[in-house]
Design brief:
By secondary structure, this protein is an alpha/beta fold. The protein is 45% helix and 13% strand. It contains ten helices and six strands. Strands 1-3-2-4-6-5 form a six-stranded mixed beta sheet, with helices on both faces. The chain is globular, with a radius of gyration of 16 Å. The model has no long low-confidence stretch (mean pLDDT 96). It binds iron/sulfur cluster.
Length: 207
């Protein structure tokens, strides 16, 4: 960190707004040159549940907020069904903060360049539970060889945080039959949230 002023600045950022401003000025990879803006994240900075996706798409790039297109609407529905929302008790971020051209998967080098921002968000939020949306998020955070179809629905612990890999909402739009699996995974998140955070937490739908 001492050798990289950007990482040092991230670490010592006075508060969340300062961190966001530092990220907004980031040019650590070439994605910044092709996007409209850095999409830092959104939600409650007091949340115990964090949701991590892959990267911004066209709508997110335009509006500056993650998961605001069709996949975002579906994510909001899934979260609401579990009693969560970005307005109250979830923080949502992506592995990379700038839109990859044509919505391609971010390269390992781009992910590596951007991870310090996510790590700093994670370090400050200290979420108890993290929902990882899709293979890119799960492979970047947990295991580069992870197969999402095999590992979704299985808790993985790192430090004191429990990670639940599941399908990305964009994949659900292409394969609606996977929605049942994601609901099963969300039920697990609700169950653990009740155990770890709030025993009175109420999902909108019957578990
Ligand atoms: S994707 Fe991340 S590392 Fe690359 S320029 Fe954007 S904020 Fe910086």
């Amino acid at each position: 960190m001492e050798n990289d002023p950007f990482l040092s600045d991230l670490h010592w950022a006075a508060d969340w707004e300062h961190l966001k401003n530092l990220a907004a000025g980031c040019t650590r990879c070439s994605l910044r040159a092709g996007c409209t803006q850095v999409v830092f994240g959104c939600g409650s900075i007091h949340a115990h549940l964090m949701v991590i996706g892959e990267g911004p798409g066209a709508d997110e790039d335009r509006l500056g907020e993650p998961f605001v297109g069709a996949a975002g609407k579906l994510l909001d529905n899934i979260l609401h069904a579990g009693g969560f929302s970005r307005e109250t008790n979830v923080y949502i971020a992506n592995i990379v903060k700038c839109r990859p051209p044509g919505n391609r998967v971010p390269t390992p080098a781009e992910r590596e360049a951007c991870l310090p921002i996510l790590r700093e968000q994670f370090r400050r939020l200290r979420p108890k539970i993290v929902l990882l949306l899709g293979a890119t998020a799960a492979q970047t955070i947990l295991d580069p060889t992870l197969a999402i179809s095999k590992e979704r629905g299985r808790w993985q612990k790192k430090g004191t945080t429990l990670f639940m890999p599941t399908y990305h909402p964009a994949a659900l739009l292409r394969n609606p039959k996977w929605k049942k699996d994601v609901w099963e995974d969300m039920k697990e998140v609700v169950r653990l949230y009740r155990d770890l955070v709030d025993e009175h937490h109420l999902p909108e739908l019957e578990l």
